[in-house]
Amino acid sequence: MDRSDLDAGCCIYLGREKFALETRLVQGIEKMMSITKVPNAPYYIKGLANLRGNIISIIDLKALLNMEFTKEEENIIIVDINEENVGLMVDNVHEVVEISDDMVEKVNDTTSYIKGVINFKEYIVTLLEGEMLLNR
Amino acid sequence: MDMSQYLDMFLEESYENLQNLNEDILGLEKNPEDKDLINAIFRAAHTLKGMAGSMGFSDIAELTHKMENVLDKFRNDELKVTSEVITILFRCLDTLEKMISNIQNGSNEIVDINEIMLQLQSIVDSKNSDKHVEKKNLDDFKLNEYDINIVKQAYEKGYKVYKVDVELIKDCVLKSARAFLVYKTLESIGEIVKSSPSIEDIEQEKFDLTFSIVVISDKQKETIEGMVLAISEIKKVNVDLIENVKNEIKENEDKKDQTAVEKAAAENIKNSKEDEKNTKKTHQSVRVDIERLDKFMNLVGELVIHRTRLEQISNNHRLNDLHETLEQVGRITTDLQDLVMKVRMLPIERVFNRFPRMVRDLAQELNKDIEFIIEGEETELDRTVIDEIGEPLVHLIRNAVDHGIEPVEERIKKGKNPKGVVKLTAYQEGNKAVIRIDDDGNGFNLDKIKKKAQSLGIDTEGMSNNDIKNLIFLQGFSTSDKVTDISGRGVGMDVVKTKIASLGGTIDVVSEFGKGSSFIIRLPLTLSIIQALLVKVGSETLAISLGFIDRVINVNINEIKLTNNKEVIMYRGSIIPVVRLADRLNLVESDNSEKYVVIVKVGEKTVGLIVDSLFGQQEIVIKSMGKTLQSLKEYVGATILGDGLVTLIVDVAALV
To answer: Cross-referenced PROSITE patterns, in alphabetical order (chain B) (predicted)?
Structure first.
């Protein structure tokens, strides 16, 4: 197997589902912070937060992925999307898994921000395409 | 070799050189005899050529080389500086600029340089045959009688006289030492007649990278070249035989008496100019990436936030000794803040210096005679403002030249000076920077504006003259009968106003029909740290820039009246329209019937913003909200308050 298509994914819990984000995008994992609401902002933007002196936008990932609200999120995962740090609200972060390209099954889903599904036998993980999350 | 790492530097320096060329050529048009200027132009063109050549942009090098040929003719007095030649040179600069910007954008578009090359060549050729033009190769040196005598004697004895131009490499550390070595080398093979700059100046490093020496020697040209090049850190050496000195000597002798005086005067001027240059050079500076400055600014901002936090803690726990230290820290952070703000400031010269060229071109195109005056170009503004203010100013100056200043005949008929004056002034006024554009042209015709307003369905009845004049800032409002290339499409003024408002500034117009008009732009000095009023709307805290706020009053909800289905309040006899901030931002207003009205002024407009409560005034650092939220026009950005919470800063100009 070619090393270049080996990548690590950061597994996150969201409601009853598991998602993964490529670790190269992940800049850090934070506890829930106080978030300032931004009136008139798109529905999936929860607001702004102060990350060590920098203001970052916090994305309500469940809203973005059209998922139902289950419980208060515990973590914010900081990702670098198109050269900007944004925070994604997640229930919690689980583990880091190794992913190679051949493990990713393409899905027929038309939404561009889902890269594919990975079957880990015990559970399945949806791999997100970070760069596409905010492209709308 | 990978050149990409040098590309940025090349681009930046090229633009700088082009700008210098533009300015100097413009200056040359006014003072065609100014040799210093010609030399400066030559140097800039030469640097550009060298840089382009070493970066492998042969087109640019070729074009600048051709340009140099023309300049060389100026230098040698073989060509008179005429308006046509200047125009071609300007076109040449435009072409160069286009080529460089293509490189910057990574576009592969090839700019055709053949035509301009031919034009340049034709200048060089046509004037070559012109025998009337005197030849004077020794301009730079102004050989005096004594020197000429020596040269003459040398020729008589069969020696040769050479002019040796030496250029040191750019980062040569010991310039004077290198120059001295050259001097010594040349001295060993002959006699040095003259050097420019003088030997004393060379010793004191009062020269750029080039210097010239006239030497009498029996050696061959190539030998001298080789000897000089053997010295390290020499970039280029050019040895020219001074042949026509004999003829010249005769000519000079004829003119000797009268020219001696002139020369002395010229030398005096030259010296004083050189002094000026020297003093300018002592102004040392470092190029810094703007990103680093932004980061620096952010860090200082953060420091301010944490200081406020610490102060809160010290107050809560009544820690006296901590409080004292914090006061010191406070003073330092304030100084630091001032400093970082000053670092971000640039003189507005940067924007202004491209206008003389523009006005000249326009005036020529329109056949108008215009004197363009710039004052206060040293006024400093925040970099962000500098970057953005150019475009609106272009519009305004174009308008002044096109619509403002009348054609020459009309001016004569009116008994005005045929030469129109457009004046661009900048100065500081409190914490605002003011930019004025004045012209002594036609001014605004009120009736014409009124007519136009009526045709657009605007009722001008009861409007003050000032209000009527301000109608020109409306979209689609142009009173010009014909649309020209330059202006009159009616898209200009509203763009100008919007742009200036987005920078937190205002624009006003003052005009007297027949006498001229003035546009007055007021801008905040800085955009990054502002004084703001913190207000509460519903459960949210918002910041409003103090720059817009006229006054704050409190009203009972019953005092808000409806007229024409719009909410207004009466204040000191005037009716002020009000905007409920909560409605605009889809927030839920508190039930409290006592409200505050923040009266804001945006340009000529006065509007009251209804808020629930006030938190007081505070200095805040504006931070951008990031790409995802950039499309929200309601906010100029966000800030972090002392308690670490993020607070939105509303954009007053967009809300009213």
So the answer is: CHEW, HIS_KIN, HPT
Q: What's residue B5's pLDDT? A: 66
Q: Please list every residue in chain B whose beta carbon sits closer than 8 Å to the beta carbon of residue A41.
A: 629, 632
pLDDT, tens only, B245-295: 545 444 444 444 555 555 555 555 555 555 544 444 455 677 778 788 878
Q: Which residue has the tokens 């500081």?
A: B428
Total tally of structural domains belonging to chain A:
1
**Full domain range(s) for residue A77:** 3-132
CB B656 within 8 A of CB B579: yes
| Least confident piece of the model among A11-25, A101-115, B516-530 | A101-115
Instruction: Count the alpha carbons within 13 Å of B276 in the hemisphere toward its beta carbon.
Output: 7
Q: What is the pLDDT of residue B133?
A: 36
Beta strands A6-14 and A92-100 are antiparallel
* B566 vs B562: CA distance, rounded Å: 5
Q: Tell me if A38 and B301 make a contact (CB, 8 A cut-off).
A: no
DSSP track, B340-403: HHHHTEEETHHHHTTHHHHHHHHHHHHT--EEEEEE-TT-EEEHHHHHHHHHHHHHHHHHIIII
CA B153 to chain centre: 52
User: For chain B, which domains are there?
Assistant: 3-125 (1.20.120.160), 159-241 (3.30.70.1110), 346-478+490-524 (3.30.565.10), 529-654 (2.40.50.180)
Could you tell me the CATH number of the domain that includes residue A101? 2.40.50.180
Contact at CB, A53 and B305, closer than 8 angstroms: yes
What mean pLDDT is predicted for residues B415-434?
85
Q: Chain B: nearest CA to A88, how far in angstroms?
A: 13
Given an 8 Å threshold on Cβ–Cβ distance, is B632 in contact with A38?
A: yes
Task: Give the pLDDT confidence of B324-349 residue by residue, as tens digits.
Answer: 888 898 889 888 877 887 787 888 88
Give the 3-state secondary structure of residue B307.
helix
Supply the pLDDT for residue A3: 46
pLDDT band for B480, please (50, 70, 90 cuts).
Answer: low
Reported as a pLDDT band with limits 50, 70 and 90, residue B144 is: low
